[in-house]
Structures are given as structure tokens and as C-alpha cells.
Amino acid sequence: MTLRRRGVGVRCKGAARLGAAGGGFAASGSQTPFEGRVGQSRETLPETQSRKTLPETDQIAGSARNVHLTPWREMCRRGDTRGSPRRALIRGAGTLAVAGGAVLAWGHFEAGWVRLRTLEVALPALPDELAGMRIVHLSDFHLGFRSRATRAVERAVEWTEACDPDLVLVSGDLLSRPRGEPLLRELLSRLPRCYAVLGNHDFAVTRDPFSKPAALEDLSPTVLLEDSAATVELRGRRVQVVGVDPRSHRLREERPADLADPDADLRILLCHFPSAVDRVPPGAFDLVLAGHMHAGQINVPRPGGKIRLAHLGWRYAQGLYRQPGGVLHVSPGLGTTFVPFRFFARPEATELVLVPGE
């Protein structure tokens, strides 16, 4: 009998023959203690059978080696990194980039999406002859600053020409940079019966780092009012327009009530800043027109309204307000400052139709 050591056991060639011959081994089909230890070599077993006969302790040890791995580490071990924190961070950054791009694109679009609005304004003691009188109120051109808002200004001027109102009143901030002056003069020349005042940006009195002062003086044929007044006859009645210089307003040195004509049938105060309505005595003016606010320009919607990120502490934002000093209209304006975007604050040109009433 030949014994050969191989693998983990020792195989006895011819064991069946020796057993049959009575050499001390058990009959065929039985197993001796020796045979149980040596068994078959692992190389001669099929792969599946080899796995099935692994000791239970080895299987438990294999599980114990993996139990400390987090899910994404286990996937990394298998070559699958789709759920790793790094991949999640990259996907999140991509989503934010797409969303940010969409928001900026909308703000750029809205800056040129001008609203052309007509509002009725009830004024007490309005003469019958002036009932239905139409005034187009424009404000805050901010020309010279590259923005789609320039298109909003041009569209507003086209609309005003077509309306052919009784008066056109412009409440300041005509330029942000001097390079916009040629376009400003061309647009103003197309506006009929136009009166204007300047704003703080025309003197670069602002925190806007992109604003530069412009030496605006004569704007003919537009009448520029700087702490001065003009009277025009419309429909057989005398209409007075008083304009406030923004520099005197900021120094609290303006006295527009001193310029008001008590014999005028309609008195209008034109000032860049809405707070002018709180600085005049009751009854001094019938109508006060202002701008400056841009309707907030950058707004965040919230339940019941919106948060205006520009001029947070100001009392008057946009639209009509009935105050002791007169009925105030605050224009949302047409241009932009600081950034060339508007969010939930469309630019607007407004036609005010005067009607008798309280």
C-alpha cells in the first residue's frame, strides 16, 4: 500500500482492495477514524462543494470582518462609488449652479420686462376741466450702466409718445454714468411737455461703486427744475409743477411750499425722494410724484407679501399713498443700480388719470 501526503489529507491508494482482502480496514462503504481525518484533497472537490464544506467558524469570521464597514465604504470596496459623500457633494454643487444660473437669467430678463400701467388718481377739489387729465410719470432711468433696463427705458419712451399725455414728469436719477448722456438727451427730446428733476445718482451721491457724477444742466426741450417752479396752462386751467433739487433735500434745506402758487388750479410737487411728502404742510400740493425706490429691485417673496432688500426702512415703496401733504405716487422706476437685475420688482411706466374724488 502506498501512502502519499497531498493537500490537507493523506490518500491511501488501493484502500478498497486492502479492505476487501481483510487487511484490517472496514468493508466498502464504512469509514474508519483514520479515514475521517485524511479525507479527500481540496483540489479534487468542485468549487461549490468546497465552499459548502467551509467550517462555520470561517463564515462567521468573514462576516465579522465586514460588519464595521459603513454602507458607502462597502460600496467603495466593491468598486461602486455612486453613493459616496464626494459624489453627493458634486451633485449638490451642480444642482446649485444650475439653480443659480436660472435665477440670474430671470433677473436679467425682468430688468427689461417693463410694465405699462394706467392708474386713476382721485384728487379732491379737482376742477371739472382737468378731470381726465393724463400725466405719464417716469423715473430712475440710470442710463450709462450696461443693463437690459436700457431697453425698458426705450420702450417706456415709445409708449409715452404713443399716449401723447397732457404732461410728462420725470422724477430723477437720469444717469448712472456720463456716457449715457447722449442717449438721455435723445429720449427726452421725444417726450411731449416734459418736466424733470435730478436724483442722487446724477451727482453720484450713493453707495453704488459703479455710479459717476454727470454735469447735467440744460436738458431742452425738457424743463429741468432745481428748487424752482413752472406753470403751464392746460385745458384752460393753470397747472403748476414745483421741482426739488436732491442736494437741498438731503440737507433738509428745500422749501417747496414757498414756491407753491395758491392761485394755481392744480399744484404738483416733483421730487426724487418719497419722503418729500412728509416735509410739506397739509394742502400745499394736490399731487406729489417721486421715485428712488425701484420697488425694492431685489425682492424675496414671502407669505402675504415680499421682503424688499433695497431701502428696507423706507415707508413708501411703490404705488399710491394718500397723505396730508398730498396724494403721493412712487414710481417703481425703469433702471437698475448695483447689479443689472430685478427680482419681483418689474420696471414700470405709469399713466396717471386724474379724476375728482376723495
Radius of gyration, in angstroms, nearest whole number: 43 Å
- The number of distinct β-strands equals 16
Helix coverage percent of residues? 25-40%
CATH-scheme architecture of the largest domain: 4-Layer Sandwich
Overview of this protein structure:
This protein has helices at 15-20, 33-38, 47-52, 56-66, 71-77, 85-111, 149-163, 181-188, 246-250, 256-259; strands spanning 2-6, 9-13, 115-123, 134-138, 167-171, 194-197, 223-224, 228-234, 237-243, 266-270, 287-290, 299-302, 305-308, 319-323, 326-330, 348-356. It is an alpha/beta fold and 358 residues long. It has two domains: 56-111; 115-356, 4-Layer Sandwich (Purple Acid Phosphatase, chain A, domain 2), CATH 3.60.21. It has a six-stranded mixed β-sheet with strand order 3-16-4-5-6-7. Strand 1 (2-6) and strand 2 form a beta hairpin.
Name some characteristics of this structure.
358 residues, alpha/beta, Purple Acid Phosphatase, chain A, domain 2, six-stranded mixed β-sheet, 10 helices, disordered N terminus
How would the blueprint of this fold be written?
Elements lengths: L1 E5 L2 E5 L1 H6 L12 H6 L8 H6 L3 H11 L4 H7 L7 H27 L3 E9 L10 E5 L10 H15 L3 E5 L9 H8 L5 E4 L25 E2 L3 E7 L2 E7 L2 H5 L5 H4 L6 E5 L16 E4 L8 E4 L2 E4 L10 E5 L2 E5 L17 E9 L2
Parallel strand pairs: 3-16, 4-5, 5-6, 6-7, 9-10, 10-11, 11-15
Antiparallel strand pairs: 1-2, 4-16, 8-9, 12-13, 14-15
In short:
By secondary structure, this protein is an alpha/beta fold.
